[in-house]
Design a protein that fits this description.
The chain is an alpha/beta fold. The chain has a domain of 222 residues: FAD/NAD(P)-binding domain (3-Layer(bba) Sandwich). It is built from twelve helices and 21 strands. The strands form four sheets. Strands 4, 6, 7, 8, 15, 16, 17, 18 and 19 form a nine-stranded mixed beta sheet that branches. Strands 10-2-1-14-21-20 form a six-stranded mixed beta sheet, sandwiched between helices. The protein has a three-stranded antiparallel beta sheet with strand order 3-9-5, with helices on one face. A hairpin with a 6-residue loop joins strand 20 and strand 21. The protein is globular, with a radius of gyration of 21 Å.
């Protein structure tokens, strides 16, 4: 049955949902207060990683919280004035880091990310965006010390146990694989099944342009709520009037929980603010996507230069950016790649939509079949978007989902 479907959110998840729904023959409208890709999707690190199944919360992380609070420029930080509002989410987050929980969560992440390239393939082919996605080009993680590498063994085991190839490199092999890398790293691994996107923003734009050429509508509006008729949601209320809908998909990133709350769903969603610096004409850089694992940031060769992106800051949706964190990334980037030319640098901050257990919410709104939730992808939005889009289209069609949706339930919290 063909329907009028409204997707709230024009990031990579929303546009992927809209694209798959359109491919099923539905009339689809996307609504966002920003143009496509100008939210979190604009500035991510570009990693496309079917094996990134390691939860953010891991055993022993509670011991690190005092350090986070003391270092505003560290890989993980919490602004003091946001500690109390964030506390309920943090408690859930730490509970999710128990060993038995980590195994379950890793299964859910792996199932969602496994089909990243296969599920992007029809979308990027139709849009002519193949040149932006470097499928299975490989991804590298590096550690500065043996101790840091040994401290991440559980994460590597989680990957291996779920079928991800992990190639361990010593310091000499690292230099052979990535000659530009500083000779300060003792250990590394390569994930040959991984890849990257060389311009995440342009990928969203290109998919959105094809969606519109194929008859889809994109409206730049602020969503304020929902129109109802009896027990059904009949449309989306915006600052420019109502958009009538048979089905609604909420894929509004870090702002999704506010909309879900209007439908009686209380989803613990936190904005883990991430930063990047992009260096135009850097003169040096990696061949593939490289993660400095113990510093928790990535270096990615992009169309527009070399991007350093990552870290986590808890400060809410309203606080001003602290661009010292971006400049810290640049400083670390110079350590990673000696000789880096930084005459042309841009800075950015975005809001990752994160649940306490790392898993997104992909489910019908509780008690409804007319509203689908598709948000909370955290650090893996680019990797998880294509499969999420396919799943959402299957849900709207009433067909059997490609994977078990239980791990992504809206009522699991």
């Amino acid at each position: 049955m063909k329907r009028n479907v409204t997707v709230i959110g024009a990031g990579i998840v929303g546009i992927s949902c809209a694209s798959y729904l359109q491919r099923d023959g539905h009339q689809v409208t996307v609504i966002d207060r920003l143009p496509p890709g100008e939210g979190c999707s604009f500035g991510n690190a570009g990693g496309m990683s079917p094996g990134s199944c390691v939860p953010v919360a891991m055993p022993g992380m509670a011991k690190q919280i005092p350090q986070w609070l003391m270092d505003p420029l560290g890989p993980l930080s919490i602004r003091w004035n946001y500690l109390l509002p964030a506390l309920p989410w943090l408690i859930r987050f730490l509970r999710a880091g128990k060993r038995e929980e980590v195994e379950r969560i890793a299964d859910g992440i792996r199932a969602l990310l496994d089909g990243v390239f296969d599920n992007y393939a029809p979308l990027i082919k139709a849009a002519g965006a193949e040149h932006l996605v470097h499928s299975r080009a490989g991804q590298m993680y590096v550690w500065r010390t043996e101790a840091a590498f040994n401290g991440d063994q559980l994460g590597l085991k989680l990957r291996r146990d779920r079928g991800i190839t992990v190639e361990v490199l010593d310091k000499h092999e690292l230099r052979q694989r990535e000659p530009a890398l500083a000779p300060i790293f003792e250990k590394g691994v390569v994930f040959p099944q991984h890849g990257h996107c060389s311009n995440p923003f342009r990928l969203v734009q290109t998919l959105a342009e094809h969606f519109q050429r194929s008859g889809g509508t994109i409206l730049k509006r602020e969503v304020t709520g929902f129109a109802r008729g009896g027990d059904r949601v009949t449309g989306v209320a915006t600052d420019a009037g109502e958009v009538k809908s048979d089905n609604v998909v909420i894929a509004a990133g870090a702002w999704s929980a506010r909309l879900a709350r209007q439908l009686g769903a209380h989803i613990p969603l936190e904005a883990q603010r991430g930063y990047h610096v992009t260096v135009a004409d850097p003169g040096v850089g990696p061949r593939i996507n490289v993660m400095w694992a113990d510093a928790k940031f990535m270096a990615t060769p992009m169309e527009m230069g070399l991007r350093f992106a990552g870290t986590v800051e808890l400060a809410g949706l309203e606080a001003a950016p602290d661009y010292r964190r971006a400049r810290k990334l640049l400083e670390l980037g110079k350590t990673m790649y000696p000789g880096l030319k930084d005459a042309k640098v841009t800075e950015w901050m975005g809001h990752r939509p994160c649940t306490p257990d790392t898993l997104p919410v992909i489910d019908f709104a509780p008690g409804r079949k007319d509203v689908v939730f598709a948000f909370g992808h955290g650090h893996t939005g680019l990797s998880g978007a294509s499969t999420t889009g396919k799943l959402v289209a299957e849900m709207v069609a009433g067909s059997k989902p490609s994977i078990d949706l239980k791990p992504y339930s809206a009522t699991r919290f």
